[in-house]
User: Fold TonB-dependent receptor from Allotamlana fucoidanivorans.
Amino acid sequence: MTNKRFFSIISLCFLLYSVATISQNTNKKQETLSSILKRLEKKHGIHFSYANKTIEGKHSASLDEHLSLEAALQRLETENQLNFEWLDNKFVVIRPSKKDKSEFKIQNLEEVVVTNYLTSGITKLNDGSITIKPQDLGILPGLIEPDVLQTIQAIPGVTSADEKVSNINIRGGTHDQNLFLWDGIKMYQSGHFFGLISAFNPYTTKQVNVYKNGSLAQYGDGVSSIVDMRLSNDVDNEFNAGAGFNFINADGYAKIPLSNTTELQISARRSITDVINTITFEQYSKRIFQDSDFTKSKGNDQSISTNENFYFYDVTAKFLYDVSPKDKLRFNFLHVDNNLDYDEQSTINQRDEALNSKLSQRNTAIGLTYIRDWNSRLSTTSQFYVSNYDLDATNHDIINNQRLIQENEVYDGAAKMDINYKVNNQLNINGGYQFTEVGISNLEDLNNPPFRRYIKEVIRTRAIYTELSFLSQNTKTRINLGGRLNYINKFDMLIPEPRLSFSQRFLNHFRFEVLGEFKSQTTSQIIDLQNDFLGIEKRRWVLANNNKTVITNDNQTIFPVPVLKSKQLSAGVHFKKNGFLVSTEAFIKQVNGITTRSQGFQNQYQFVNSIGSYQIKGIDVLLNKEISNTITSWISYSYSKNTYTFSNLNQGNSFPNNVDLTHILNIAGSYTYKNFKWAAGLNYHSGKPITKPDPSTPPEDGIITYLSPNSSRLNDYLRVDCSIIYSFSISNETKASFGASIWNLLNKKNILNRYYTLNSENNLNQIENESLGITPNVSFRIFL
Assistant:
């Protein structure tokens, strides 16, 4: 996207804002109840919990700014025939009046177990999931904006072994084993700047649901976890907008009522790194490009210079149309784009050579959703979407006179029908059908020597699911029991997937929880370190082929890629009283069908194609204390043992997983005083397993002899982060905030990876990938 187009988008946003502001000012007498509640939350530091239908279509006269909270709630109760019930000094449940009992069951089935889980804006529900509301999110160490994928790493059991949001490890799984949904659409690209920044705009994301285990039966894929990001889905006739920038990018968003029944939500974000060279960009570049083609040595006898240009952007749009009180249409669009190109110049035989190499990575998604409320008990949701991921690279090697073209493309089209039936106040039945067609292609085209390989696979999957949700009258017992049945017609394979979520409250402040699930997925990523995209992007998507090595008609080899299958069980006890939370959860997870090519081995198994499994056992512990709404502190600790088993590797014996981080410790705290928010935290984890060469056996014939796989470890990882945010008012309608953060405050040199290669003289080279050094960032935002 050119700068002219970018500024055109920003100008359009401000134009739309002006129009919406004029229309908004024409009617200030009545406001939606939703907008009034949001303002009360911000003003008084409280949280409301309610079912959407409880406040849907309700309006009230604007509240006097000097009205007390108690008086405001009393007036809203009377005008809207609602009941406001305080659960503690910060949490208010909104229920329909006793005259309308049909809605009460919705609130029961969505009971919140823990509010302010870690910090404000994060809650834990009684089905085992964790919900994040970016707009209500408190401050976290090292973050000045609510980056969705950075935020979830604060949850126990969630981490990134290499600091990237494109490589999130949830209970020992790899990143491709996480299912990322954006308003129900599967996403295949999750990061900007090749993994350092989330690709999803947090200011248009209303809610994020995270399932580490016990996920609902409606979710397919994601043998490791579910990260379900949802945009606002209600037409509430409330305008809001915002814009801001930091040392990496600038963005703007707007939520624009077009009429009483229509609304438009738009956002745009673009990097400023190709315009301004900031210290944050320099640190990010050093981290990402340290092992890329244009930082590797090209030889002493050649003169090589490079001039790289990098930028990214994303745009989103959602159109909401309430056709009638019972019928709703929703249209979604998202486009995420990263672009890198660099010139490689050299003088060879007294002749100047200059060639351009480039890499583009993008994900485009389009979806249409139709919601029908047949009556107070029955509702249906139909969705159709297309998600397209495309990674293109052209790499020129001047010295060897080579040009390599690589492409990885994913086409994912799906149709889903979900049926929800509320039997009574305690019982809910959910079921549905999903059809998915996924096609993945990989292309490699080399000119010298001539070589071309193009492989495309297509899989169609049909699934039916059903789930029963029960909540006892006293809300102490909650159980979700369901199942999903997947059928892959290409392999004539039927895969049953039972799901379980059980929660029991006892002794008032204790809750016992059991979660379990079987899951499967047909897509995965392989890591081709010998032939990656410019040395930057090492992962490419592939489809399962049912464990078969296939030789195509043109003698091209397709290596075995099984359907991934997982089993997981966890049990925990949670205690919450007077702002103090103690949570412990033990778990075991087994994932079968992984391949060596998906794990990124850089030892004796780097060129081996083998199928195996990994098993992880562990425990997550969280201590969280909140003091008078101003001080929040927490300590989370995870202990786990994560091991591989490949029948034909290491004599069939188990050995440590590449992301076996035995100990993970996070200590953090935040303090709020008036308009200031401070946060600081420490992140620690055990060193990543590595394999060292055998010192007693020197390399021979270009082959390195290694010790036992993953028998050594890097030094432990340690990082201290801090951040501060100051909020203030520019006018009655306009708010602003200023933020500053420092990542790796102590500037500790953490080694994220270490591997070995041979030089031209058959001598060992030790190569290390370092973490981000001390990295400051600054942001400024305006909210309308």
